[in-house]
């Protein structure tokens, strides 16, 4: 099978997880290098010059946080963090030290492959997903994915963590129509315990915070028979 020339550095100390993720990535034609501890990861990073890093946080010798910070001193390549830490502060800290995305364990390898592809596409377009503030309609809506802040008319919309995850998922894939199941897998992770219809409740609350008229939305659009998509035109 022909490789797509995108090189992925996969770092995790659990062989079963590494083998599963590597198989999925290679099946999608990525070139995968693997490391099982922090020292090996940093050595391989310099040797391989990967296009993207998939990085577990809890590693022997050097932690994932330290690796992320070291990489960020010399590179802006996309980094996806894998973590068993599900507290909001842990996730926010991961973004603040330079992660572009994160997945909480357990997660779907298929979801990881989707996120890898999305980050690489945006990186190739010269857009670092989490180092820019995006805005729509003369800053009617502003989303800062690095600081995890959403503003409506310049005022903090005070989104809940789940509302922010939904909105950030939708804007990362503009014009794509998502089923409720896809939104659960990508926004909340494979281990999410909620039902598909809880998405509707989150969407309703999100619209109340960012739409001028929640009954006639221009950002969070309903796709009849499918689910939802983001309808805003970026500036």
From TrEMBL:
<feature type="domain" description="OmpR/PhoB-type">
    <location>
        <begin position="131"/>
        <end position="232"/>
    </location>
</feature>
<dbReference type="InterPro" id="IPR039420">
    <property type="entry name" value="WalR-like"/>
</dbReference>
<dbReference type="GO" id="GO:0000156">
    <property type="term" value="F:phosphorelay response regulator activity"/>
</dbReference>
<dbReference type="InterPro" id="IPR001867">
    <property type="entry name" value="OmpR/PhoB-type_DNA-bd"/>
</dbReference>
<dbReference type="GO" id="GO:0006355">
    <property type="term" value="P:regulation of DNA-templated transcription"/>
</dbReference>
<dbReference type="InterPro" id="IPR016032">
    <property type="entry name" value="Sig_transdc_resp-reg_C-effctor"/>
</dbReference>
<protein>
    <recommendedName>
        <fullName>Stage 0 sporulation protein A homolog</fullName>
    </recommendedName>
</protein>
<feature type="modified residue" description="4-aspartylphosphate">
    <location>
        <position position="56"/>
    </location>
</feature>
<feature type="DNA-binding region" description="OmpR/PhoB-type">
    <location>
        <begin position="131"/>
        <end position="232"/>
    </location>
</feature>
<dbReference type="InterPro" id="IPR036388">
    <property type="entry name" value="WH-like_DNA-bd_sf"/>
</dbReference>
<keyword id="KW-0805">Transcription regulation</keyword>
<dbReference type="InterPro" id="IPR001789">
    <property type="entry name" value="Sig_transdc_resp-reg_receiver"/>
</dbReference>
<dbReference type="GO" id="GO:0005829">
    <property type="term" value="C:cytosol"/>
</dbReference>
<dbReference type="InterPro" id="IPR011006">
    <property type="entry name" value="CheY-like_superfamily"/>
</dbReference>
<dbReference type="GO" id="GO:0000976">
    <property type="term" value="F:transcription cis-regulatory region binding"/>
</dbReference>
<dbReference type="Pfam" id="PF00072">
    <property type="entry name" value="Response_reg"/>
</dbReference>
<dbReference type="GO" id="GO:0032993">
    <property type="term" value="C:protein-DNA complex"/>
</dbReference>
<dbReference type="Pfam" id="PF00486">
    <property type="entry name" value="Trans_reg_C"/>
</dbReference>
<feature type="domain" description="Response regulatory">
    <location>
        <begin position="7"/>
        <end position="120"/>
    </location>
</feature>
<keyword id="KW-0597">Phosphoprotein</keyword>
<keyword id="KW-0902">Two-component regulatory system</keyword>
<comment type="function">
    <text>May play the central regulatory role in sporulation. It may be an element of the effector pathway responsible for the activation of sporulation genes in response to nutritional stress. Spo0A may act in concert with spo0H (a sigma factor) to control the expression of some genes that are critical to the sporulation process.</text>
</comment>
<keyword id="KW-0804">Transcription</keyword>
<keyword id="KW-0238">DNA-binding</keyword>
